[in-house]
Amino acid sequence: MPLRTRNKGVAIGVGSHWLSNFAIVFFTPDAIKNLGPKLYIIWAVFNAAFVPITYFFYPETARRSLEDMDEVFLNERFGVTKCRKPGPRKLETDSDSELEKTYDGKDGMNVAHHGGDFKN
After folding, report:
1. Which residues are paired to 110 by β-bridges?
2. Is residue 70 a contact partner of residue 4, using CB atoms and an 8 Å limit?
3. 102: which strand partners?
């Protein structure tokens, strides 16, 4: 979501999540009693329908900052984003976070850890 609407979007998302969970828990026992195994076919169809929805409407967010995602959503067209691949790997420079030394507790060796992504 764009930065200017993120709070409202998160609130709507959380509210709809709770409402849909309530509906599922409330209606599923009666649906199982009335439809039997046919209910599982209905759930499978709904789940399959969300595969293209997820692909076209939810961009890849790996290795992207919030500012990068803001640009992704500003460049969307009719809600469809073009961001399908993870962002580029960022090289660690001297200005990045300092590595801190910690004791791993096994053989007395110090191991370097940092707060970012694991790099291959």
Report:
1. 103
2. no
3. 111
Cβ atoms of residues 81 and 59 within 8 Å: yes
Residue identified by tokens 């790099």 is: 119
The neighbouring-strand residues paired with 100 are: 113
Kindly report, residue by residue over 74-105, the tens digit of the pLDDT. Answer: 777 766 666 666 666 666 554 444 444 444 45
* 3-class DSSP state of 102: strand
pLDDT tens digits, residue range 5-23? 889 999 999 999 999 999 9
Q: What is the pTM of this model?
A: 0.46
Cβ within 8 Å of residue 3, ≥6 positions away: 66, 67, 70
Q: Is the Cβ–Cβ distance between 117 and 63 less than 8 Å?
A: yes
- Distance (Å) of CA 100 to CA 94, 96, 109, 116, 117: 14, 12, 13, 12, 15
Those residues with Cβ within 8 angstroms of residue 72's Cβ, 6 or more apart along the chain or in another chain = 59, 64, 81, 82, 83
Residue 12's Cα: distance from chain center in Å? Answer: 16
Residue type, 52: P
